[in-house]
Write a structure and sequence with these properties.
This protein has 5 helices and 2 strands; from the N terminus they run ααβαβαα. The protein is mostly helical. It has a domain of 76 residues.
Length: 112
């Protein structure tokens, strides 16, 4: 089994995506939010990499938010960054009231 470093992770380009991955990109291009989940080796990183490239090419803001900092390390390539939800929204603790989470997110133009 080979081990990949973040900079050598094998991302496919949008010309080699599966039919399902291509459909997900169409949904995102139509300005729908998406949540990508799945077991190891199912193509999550490939999909997210292709999606990010496509949407940024169109001038869209793209944020990759992962469940943990470790999960985000796979995206540390070519200037790409990923963060946890708490880091992305500037939340210091997980016990903020829901209305404060929404207020902070909207105030920072992170949620439309």
């Amino acid at each position: 089994m080979s081990k990949h470093t973040p900079s050598s992770f094998p991302f496919r380009d949008s010309n080699t995506l599966t039919t399902e991955q291509s459909e997900i990109i169409k949904v995102a291009k139509a300005r729908h939010n998406i949540l990508v989940t799945g077991q190891a080796g199912t193509g999550k990183s490939t999909l997210v990499g292709a999606l990010q490239k496509e949407l940024r090419r169109k001038g869209r803001k793209v944020a990759i938010i992962c469940s943990s900092g470790i999960a985000g390390t796979v995206y540390l390539r070519d200037g790409t960054t990923a963060s946890t939800a708490h880091a992305f929204y500037g939340l210091r603790t997980a016990d903020l009231p829901a209305n404060m989470v929404v207020e902070r997110s909207v105030a920072n133009n992170l949620v439309c």
